[in-house]
Amino acid sequence: MDLKPFKLDIDELINEFAKGGSPSFAEMKRVWVSKKFSYIFEASPSKDQACFMQSLYAYCSGYMVSTYSLLSRLGGLYSLYCLYETQPFKPPFKIYISLGDLKNLRNIIAEAKAKDVKVVPALVKRMLDRNMFLFGSVDVNEGSVAERLDELTEIQNASIRIASKKAWSLRWICSSKSQQNMQGPRNLLLEVTSMSFLSF
C-alpha cells in the first residue's frame, strides 16, 4: 500500500497546527476536527492493519526529533495520541516507541514544562497510565516498519509463551482441587488467563 498520501495528510495537519502558534492540545483538536482527520481510517487496508498503524505512528514520531520547532514536535505527539484514540481497531494497536523515541519524548516534556505548557506532561502521563505504548529497541531511523513488526511479533510470541505456561500451571492447580468442587472458579480463572492473549 502506498502510504505517501497519508504522510502528506499528516504533514498538512501538523503544519496547520504549528502555524496556529498555540501549543495547546485544544488547538490540535480544533485542527483535527476541522480537517475531519479521523476519516484517515476509511482508507485503511483490510489486511496488514498493524503495518498501516505502525507506519502512521512512526511517521508522527519522526516529528518529535529536536531539529523541529517545539510546535511541530508537539504536533507529532498530539497526532500520536489522536490516532490512537480515534482508531477503529479493537483491541487498539499500541504505539511502538523505541529508546530513541523515548529520549525525544522526554526532551519534549522538559521543554514544554520550561515553557509552562502544562498539558504535555499530563497527556504523556495519561498515555502511560492507559498503556498506549509498546516499548522496543529498534529506533525510527535505524529500522524499517518491517523490522518493527518483527520485533512486535517476537514480543507478542514471548507473551503468549508466558501466558501459556501460566495457563498450564493454573490448569494443574485447578485439576488437583477438582475433588473440592472447584469447577466454577477454575473456569473463571482460565477465562481471565485467556483474556491476556486478546489484550496484547
UniProtKB/TrEMBL annotation:
GO CC terms of this entry: snRNA-activating protein complex
GO biological process, one term: snRNA transcription by RNA polymerase III
Record InterPro entries: SNAPC1
Superkingdom to which the source organism belongs: Eukaryota
Protein name: Uncharacterized protein isoform X1
Single GO term (MF): sequence-specific DNA binding
The species this protein was found in: Nicotiana tabacum
